């Protein structure tokens, strides 16, 4: 029983009641449906439900009293009573006829009913309609531990709902331009989902009298019926042999072309939903969830869960929570950016860069790169200040804390959803063993320590060998990614000289920016190209194993170039006259005179915008184009056939199937975005704002795709988001480390502090204002004697265009002694002070933020107080209910004993 976890509570012995067969279930009139036969053509009917056929008069007689709507909506068998629970599609021309016949014979042996229809558009395509009668549903629901309602709950108003109601009232009061109830859904359009208001227990045919059954035809909803049928199909043999089972293998070898449950009709209606109501749940989901005009509304998660299952419902619940939590992060990030805009004119560093017309910088590449004035990088210095200012450190700390708060409050939100959706007691032991695993390791069994039942298991040596093979594959792919990044590095090193010798002055004068921009675009193409190149016990273990491996590859693929720019670009170049070279040939790339942060900002901004745009196009644009092209071909071939005359199975077959990895691509896109939003957020404060704008679109885009463009996915249960939560925690920890290094190493925050407190005009006074930064630019540049250039590094220009005579000295970014010092070009004392300050900042920052994160995790309980009280109250009520049931049973037994004793007494003379 739901929420009865206390072993101290007594259990009630349920009284056995025989299950009466439902006489209202109408079986197909054809004898071949339930009898095995080699050739199933007797089940095949041509045409659709709205077309006339020779069987019309017979169907009218057989289906007397059956609603005409059931006959014409394409969701039922030809009798209008048996609902279609699953569709299989195959081609007559397929050579796997024998396997398919054996499979279908075994399907009928399991008790499933079957009908066949030929396609209206292609006579080679056959649709196999499957229906599960009540006996089959009850038997397998008990095997699968399907939880069903048996008693009404007593509900209390959530504090969270009261809080959100107050927010909505304030928004509506002070912002009259917003629509009424700007976030809440219209309750009158939503159905009353009864299963959310009931206690549930695993279904049992012996205890059927305890469950709330108003109508056996609707007791199991459509999603549950499809899940049960899919469970059967995954375990039916198609050949004699242990490993020759399951629908998946038949889909792989071409025996069947497709397999899917049906949508509940059309998602559009000629009538308004407000005046005539929703035609079906799909129509309701489209109007109140997938419509673009509902972007400011809450999601109807209960309805999503009912139609698509708990796993998809949890994805949209997490996506909505993540999007909502991005609002404060986006606001603070925008504030940091605007702070940089407002303080731009007061920034002493950018002023000095713009006024440094007399400072000549050394060339940034060999031969073709000219000498340049420092003032030429004035624009880049100002742009750098927009992202690298006094608020950057605060924002880095805030985002680290934000990631922790987001995860902690998601645990609370998930607990509420798990309670409302009856997932609290759903354990991994209740999860189905993968049929492929069951078939392969069925000869090796061991006792399950939880259930006490024998189950197949995989030997440790086999696990290790598979793990080694799998890890080797991932390691190889990561090496391919690193090789691609190495190629990008070579491209940047080579093309900077090429752009410096370009004919167009615009590119020649901005050779480094052109190099960075084209390298980022090429890197994006490589990322998307490598994204295309990509045997556990249970389904979740398989998903977790696959998810972890693929995430590691995708994460390295997406972020490797960003890590190179953030922590390696310009760090190991040497100095003029002694440059470090790649393969002793190419000089390593240097940072821009205004710093390396501008390159990191460009990398993150371009990749984030391009990737999100591309993902949105591929998610919606690709299925839209595919479905449009399919409809266009159908209309060209069958112009006289109206769209409405196609049955539902034909319409759904022409939709795009959900990708083979389920929700993996959806989660992966958001998790990688979360990494981009947190890991390098100190260098790009606008990342949360871009993520927020994308996610507002993403929710409705995914909803529209699931409801209108994809075939209905199989509903499946899950109690959380799986291994993705652990990955999110890992990203949160990594973000603290990377942001500490970005602030300390990539930005100029630490060198400026050291100068202000140690070397500037305010040294020793404890001040750090803009007046204390006077002379910082000059102090951060070292002097180089031009005559000390290597022959292969000496520029073609001698710099005479600046002063009328050849240049004698040039400047470069570093802390080194001048050429005429006792140790030419050796590190100065300021370099060691800056290095020590950077290391100290990293240690202090990490320890401080980690302490705050752990404190927040400790202070925020995983369960909300009102939910904990509700669960305790529920346990108390269940205990009382059990006590009353036990007392009633004892009283009945006592009355029966008294009655039996009296009757025996009357028999004596």
What would a concise description of this structure say?
This protein has 30 helices and 17 strands. With about 900 residues, the protein is an alpha+beta fold. The protein folds into two domains: about 30-260, no CATH class; about 300-745, no CATH class.
Notable features of this structure?
two-stranded antiparallel sheet, 5-stranded mixed beta sheet, single chain, disordered N terminus, alpha+beta
N- and C-termini, Cα separation: 51 Å
Give a quick account of the main beta sheet: strands, pairing sense, barrel closure.
Answer: 5 strands, mixed
Number of helices: 30
How many domains? The number is 2
- What amount of the residues lies in strands? 5-15%
Indicate the percent of residues in helices.
Answer: 40-55%
Pfam families: Anoct_dimer, Anoctamin
GO molecular function, one term: protein dimerization activity
Family: Belongs to the anoctamin family.
Organism: Gopherus agassizii
Give me the secondary-structure topology.
Elements: E1 44-45, H1 56-62, H2 68-72, E2 86-91, H3 97-109, E3 113-118, E4 125-131, H4 134-143, E5 147-152, H5 159-174, E6 198-202, H6 216-219, H7 222-233, H8 247-252, E7 258-260, H9 273-276, H10 281-290, H11 301-308, H12 310-342, H13 348-355, E8 360-361, E9 372-373, H14 378-387, H15 392-420, H16 435-440, E10 445-447, E11 454-456, H17 460-500, H18 505-509, H19 511-532, H20 539-567, E12 574-575, E13 578-579, E14 581-582, E15 586-587, H21 597-637, H22 648-653, H23 664-679, H24 687-709, H25 723-746, H26 749-759, H27 776-779, E16 781-785, H28 800-803, E17 809-813, H29 829-859, H30 865-907
Parallel strand pairs: 1-3
Antiparallel strand pairs: 2-4, 2-7, 3-4, 5-6, 8-9, 10-11, 12-13, 14-15, 16-17
Helix pairs in contact: 10-24, 11-12, 12-15, 12-24, 13-14, 15-25, 15-29, 17-19, 17-20, 19-20, 19-21, 20-21, 20-23, 20-25, 21-24, 23-25, 25-29, 26-29
């Amino acid at each position: 029983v739901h929420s009865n976890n206390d072993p101290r509570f007594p259990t009630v012995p349920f009284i056995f009641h025989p299950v009466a067969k439902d006489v209202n279930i109408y079986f197909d009139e054809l004898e071949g449906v339930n009898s095995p036969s080699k050739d199933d053509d007797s089940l095949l009917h041509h045409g659709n439900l709205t077309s006339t056929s020779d069987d019309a008069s017979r169907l009218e007689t057989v289906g007397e009293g059956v609603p005409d709507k059931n006959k014409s909506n394409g969701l039922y068998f030809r009798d209008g009573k048996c609902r279609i629970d699953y569709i299989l599609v195959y081609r007559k021309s397929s050579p796997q006829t024998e396997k398919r016949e054996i499979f279908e014979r075994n399907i009928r042996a399991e008790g499933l009913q079957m009908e066949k229809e030929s396609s209206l558009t292609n006579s080679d395509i056959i649709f196999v309609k499957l229906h599960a009668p009540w006996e089959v549903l009850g038997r397998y629901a008990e095997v699968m531990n399907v939880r069903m309602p048996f008693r009404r709950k007593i509900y209390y108003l959530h504090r969270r709902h009261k809080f959100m109601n107050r927010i909505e009232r304030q928004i509506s009061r002070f912002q009259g331009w917003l629509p009424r109830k700007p976030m809440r859904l219209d309750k009158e359009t939503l159905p009353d989902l009864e299963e959310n208001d009931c206690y549930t227990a695993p279904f049992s045919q012996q205890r059927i009298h305890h469950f709330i059954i108003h109508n056996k035809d609707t007791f199991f909803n459509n999603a549950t019926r499809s899940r049960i049928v899919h469970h059967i199909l995954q375990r039916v043999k198609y050949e004699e042999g242990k490993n020759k089972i399951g629908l998946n293998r038949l889909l792989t070898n071409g025996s069947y072309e497709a397999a899917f449950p049906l949508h509940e009709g059309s998602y559009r209606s000629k009538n308004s939903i407000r005046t005539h109501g929703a035609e079906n749940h799909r129509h309701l989901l489209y109007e109140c969830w997938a419509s673009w005009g509902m972007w400011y509304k809450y999601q109807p998660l209960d309805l999503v869960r009912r139609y698509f299952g708990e796993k998809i419902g949890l994805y949209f619940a997490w996506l909505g929570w993540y999007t909502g939590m991005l609002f404060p992060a986006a606001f603070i990030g925008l504030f940091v950016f605007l702070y940089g805009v407002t303080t731009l004119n007061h920034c002493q560093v950018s002023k000095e860069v713009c006024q440094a017309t007399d400072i000549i910088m050394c060339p940034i590449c060999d031969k073709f790169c000219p000498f340049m004035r420092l003032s030429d990088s004035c624009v880049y210095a100002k742009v750098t200040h927009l992202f690298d200012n006094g608020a950057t450190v605060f924002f880095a700390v805030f985002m680290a804390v934000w990631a922790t708060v987001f995860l902690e409050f998601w645990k609370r939100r998930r607990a509420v959803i798990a309670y409302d959706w009856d997932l609290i007691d759903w354990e991994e032991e209740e999860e189905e063993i993968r049929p492929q695993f069951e078939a392969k390791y069925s000869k090796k069994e061991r006792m399950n320590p939880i259930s006490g039942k024998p189950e197949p298991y995989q030997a440790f040596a086999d696990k290790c060998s598979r793990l080694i093979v799998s890890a080797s594959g991932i390691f190889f792919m990561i090496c391919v990614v690193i090789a691609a990044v190495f190629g990008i590095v070579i491209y940047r090193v080579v093309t900077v000289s090429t752009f410096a010798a370009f004919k167009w002055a615009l590119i020649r004068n901005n050779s480094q920016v052109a190099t960075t921009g084209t390298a980022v675009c090429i890197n994006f193409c490589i990322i998307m190209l490598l994204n295309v190149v990509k045997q556990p016990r249970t389904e979740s273990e398989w998903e977790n194993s696959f998810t972890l491996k693929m995430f590691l590859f995708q994460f390295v693929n997406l972020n490797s170039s960003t890590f190179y720019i953030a922590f390696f670009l310009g760090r190991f170049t040497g100095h003029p006259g002694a440059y470090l070279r790649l393969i002793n040939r190419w000089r390593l790339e240097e940072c821009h005179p205004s710093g390396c942060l501008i390159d990191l900002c460009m990398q993150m901004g371009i990749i984030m915008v391009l990737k999100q745009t591309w993902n949105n196009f591929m998610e919606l644009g690709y299925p839209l184009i595919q479905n449009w092209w399919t409809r266009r071909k159908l209309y060209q071939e069958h112009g006289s056939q109206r769209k409405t005359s196609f049955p539902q199975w034909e319409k759904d077959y022409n939709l795009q199937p959900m990708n083979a990895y389920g929700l993996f691509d959806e989660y992966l896109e958001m998790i990688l975005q979360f990494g981009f939003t947190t890991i390098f957020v100190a260098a790009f404060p606008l990342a949360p704002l871009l993520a927020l704008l994308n996610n507002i679109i993403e929710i409705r885009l995914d909803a529209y795709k699931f409801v209108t463009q994809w075939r209905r996915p199989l509903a499946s249960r899950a109690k959380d988001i799986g291994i993705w939560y652990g990955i999110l925690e890992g990203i949160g920890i990594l973000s603290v480390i990377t942001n500490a290094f970005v602030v300390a190493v990539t930005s100029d925050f630490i060198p400026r502090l050291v100068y202000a407190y140690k070397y500037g005009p305010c040294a020793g006074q404890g001040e750090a204002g803009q007046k204390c930064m006077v002379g910082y630019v000059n102090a951060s540049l070292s002097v180089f004697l031009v005559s000390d250039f290597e022959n292969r590094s000496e520029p073609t220009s001698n710099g005479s265009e600046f002063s009328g005579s050849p240049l004698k000295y040039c400047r470069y970014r570093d802390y080194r002694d001048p050429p005429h010092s006792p140790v030419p070009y050796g590190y100065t004392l300021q370099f060691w002070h800056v290095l020590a300050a950077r290391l100290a900042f990293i240690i202090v920052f990490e320890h401080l933020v980690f302490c705050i994160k752990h404190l927040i995790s400790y202070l925020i309980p995983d369960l909300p107080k009102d939910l904990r009280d509700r669960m305790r109250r529920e346990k108390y009520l269940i205990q009382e209910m059990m006590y009353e049931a036990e007392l009633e049973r004892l009283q009945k037994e006592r009355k029966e004993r008294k009655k039996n004793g009296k009757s025996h007494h009357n028999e004596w003379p």
